UniProtKB/TrEMBL annotation:
Phylogenetic lineage: Bacteria, Bacillati, Actinomycetota, Actinomycetes, Micrococcales
GO molecular function: hydrolase activity
Active site residues per record: H127, C195
The name this protein goes by in its record: Class E sortase
Transmembrane segments: 9-27
The species this protein was found in: Arthrobacter zhangbolii
Entry keywords, A to Z: Hydrolase, Membrane, Transmembrane, Transmembrane helix
InterPro entries, alphabetized: Sortase (IPR005754), Sortase_Class_E (IPR053465), Sortase_dom-sf (IPR023365), Sortase_E (IPR042003)
Keyword Cytoplasm listed: no
């Protein structure tokens, strides 16, 4: 009798474990995906659509406009597009890197770092697996790949440079000059951070990029992401 009861308990425990794994690897992605879509829809409702006659290609727009810091955790203020991650990749960026943000809203912004287009380091974090797995493909980036950031002011184009794998205590990767906390920044950086390996968290994988150019929202999106931006705009109106 005792053996039978023990066996039934083991079977029940096994089923619970399977359901938990399915919830983690499948359902959390669905829930987070819906929350991210809602966040993007709400954000773009506040964007002013481009003029009927977009600004000429190659026009110099001067220094980029930079958003004021967003202090309220969970407030969404930008969208990141990475063509290397897929033609439909568009993930919101919200203030904060706590679980309430990362588990639901895609990418979280380290509040102490620069805003998009600002001199210094615009640093964000995201999950590699579960909860939308917004940075699952971070390891596939190739030097020269473009990462686009859209805010209510415009589009900021960053060019990926290199990847580094570090221990979790390496907070210097989000310094104004990545890995050099004592340096005074003169460039505009973007740093993506996530867990490593894909199904673990013993390390952190860090992808570095530098800003290449910017366009005001009125100029229309860069050609590489135009279709994705249009889909988001249509979905948000």
């Amino acid at each position: 009798m005792a053996v039978q009861v023990a066996g039934e308990l083991l079977i029940t425990a096994g089923l619970i474990l399977v359901l938990f794994v399915a919830w983690q690897l499948w359902w959390t992605n669905i829930e987070s995906g819906r929350a991210q879509q809602d966040a993007i829809r709400d954000l773009v409702q506040d964007f002013e659509l481009p003029a009927d006659d977009p600004a000429p290609a190659g026009q110099d727009y001067g220094d980029p406009v930079v958003l004021a810091p967003v202090d309220t955790e969970g407030d969404t203020f930008a969208i990141v597009y990475v063509p290397r991650f897929g033609s439909d990749y568009a993930v919101p960026v919200s203030s904060g890197v706590g679980t309430a943000v990362l588990d639901r809203l895609g990418l979280g912004h380290y509040p102490s770092t620069a805003m998009p287009g600002g001199i210094g380091n615009f640093a964000v974090a995201g999950h590699r697996q579960t909860h939308g797995k917004s940075l699952d493909a971070i390891h596939t980036l190739v030097p020269g790949d473009r990462v686009y950031v859209q805010t209510r002011d415009g589009y900021y184009t960053y060019v990926y440079r290199n990847t580094q794998v570090v221990l979790p205590n390496r907070v210097d990767v989000i310094a104004p000059v990545p890995t050099d906390p004592a340096a005074v920044p003169t460039e505009r950086f973007l740093t993506l951070t996530s867990c490593n390996p894909r199904f673990g968290s013993q390390e952190r994988i860090i992808a570095y990029a530098a800003m290449d150019s910017w366009l005001p929202l009125s100029a229309g999106p860069p050609a590489e992401i135009a279709d994705t931006v249009a889909a988001n705009t249509t979905g948000g109106r």
